[in-house]
Structure formats: C-alpha cells, structure tokens
Amino acid sequence: MYRRTALITTTAVLATTFAAPADAAPSLARFIPAKAGSLTISVPASAALGSARSGGQLTSRIATVTVTDTREPGAGSWTTTVSSTNYTRTSPPTATISRANVYYWSGPATDTQGGGTFTPGQPTAAQRVSLSTTQTAFSHTHIAGVNSASWAPTLQVSIPFATTAGNYAGTITHSVG
Fold first, then answer.
1. Alpha-helical segments (H) within 61-168
2. Where exactly are the structural domains of the chain?
C-alpha cells in the first residue's frame, strides 16, 4: 500500500529591517510575494508484490510516481524521499519482515517536463538501497519554472529464512519537499 504526502504549502514571507540609528532615513518593510501554484506528488494507491518462499526474494516494479511543480516565480529545487514500514503478517500468528529487508531503486525518469536537472536516486538495480532509513528517490535542481518528473520504481523484498508463510502488508511513503 502507498500513502502520498505533499509537504510544501504556499506561504508569504514578510522581511523587515532592524532599527537604524535615529539620524538615518526610515526603513520600509519589504514584502516577498508567495509562490503561486503547488508542488504535488501522485503515487499508486496500492500494489501487490506477489509471493515467494522463505529465504527468497520478491521483486516488483510498481506503478508510476509523478512530481509536478507549478510554483511560480522561482520554484526551483525539490527532493522526493521514500520510506517504508515493517511488513507484518495480516493474520495470526504475528510475524514481521523488517523494513531493512525492503530495497528500492527509482530507475531512470520515464518522463520529464521543464528545465533543470532531474536526478534519479538510484538509476539501476545495482544502486538499490535498503529502506531501513529514509532515502532520496528523485530530485530536481537548478532552473526555476514549471516542471515535472515521472518514474516507475522497483521494490525488492528479501524474505528471511524461517519466515512464517502468509500475507504481509506494509506501507511505502513517497514525500516531496
């Protein structure tokens, strides 16, 4: 299962100058306009990874993840991160596959729009990372302006020996900021 998160909100920043000596000209507050638009992420609602024996591996490409940045002016950079929960058996007896056994690679972009540099976190299976901690999935840097990137990541679950057979569920979270 997947949960989507968008961490950027549109805000206005008010910058003021501090008090100058009494004989200086009065200073004015400067208003920096909010960035119009939004930074959003769309992710698959759920995915079935298949089945494997104890001591085996499941490898499955999941549906496309897309980040769209319509903030203007000066939208600039963004980074998407990915994390995982442990996978737990959905019926008794209780059993867990640690998130340290869940691996991720973003693969290359399947589509990009706009300028700047789009960088996959892990372009190939050889660069896969464990989701024992939060990892970078994809990023965009440099040129500001409306942009988007899509990729179809792959998950791999290493099933420890002596894992109890059954259905397991966990959550993969992609966030953008």
1. none
2. 2-176
